């Protein structure tokens, strides 16, 4: 993350996540339905990956993919179109630092 405090606010506002660890050490841990999501501020020597499909990214599950897609779009989040692959429907979206996340339904 370029600024972990701004990222923390984005994840709390857009996805409703809450902080489980926040010691002001340039990172914060958020609760993602019982799983930890750590936001780490990059140092000057680190590079971010960006919108690369080859990078690792969280995949969030929902039973209501259309509603999730619409909600994120209404929150001014950059979302990709919903896609289908067999019995799986999914879409990607990006946080304020262009880190990719995905929502799926199967």
UniProtKB/TrEMBL annotation:
Matches recorded under InterPro entries: Glyas_Bleomycin-R_OHBP_Dase (IPR029068), Glyas_Fos-R_dOase_dom (IPR004360), VOC_core (IPR037523)
Record domain VOC: where: 1-106
Pfam family, one: Glyoxalase
Transmembrane segments: none
Alphabetized PROSITE patterns for the sequence: VOC
Protein name per its UniProtKB record: VOC domain-containing protein
């Amino acid at each position: 993350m370029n600024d972990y405090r701004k990222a923390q606010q984005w994840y709390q506002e857009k996805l409703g996540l809450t902080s489980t660890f926040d010691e002001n050490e340039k990172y914060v841990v958020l609760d993602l339905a019982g799983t930890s999501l750590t936001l780490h501020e990059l140092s000057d020597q680190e590079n971010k990956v960006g919108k690369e499909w080859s990078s690792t990214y969280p995949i969030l599950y929902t039973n209501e993919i259309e509603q999730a897609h619409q909600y994120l779009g209404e929150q001014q989040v950059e979302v990709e179109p919903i896609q289908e692959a067999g019995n799986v429907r999914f879409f990607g979206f990006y946080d304020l630092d262009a880190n990719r996340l995905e929502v799926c339904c199967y």
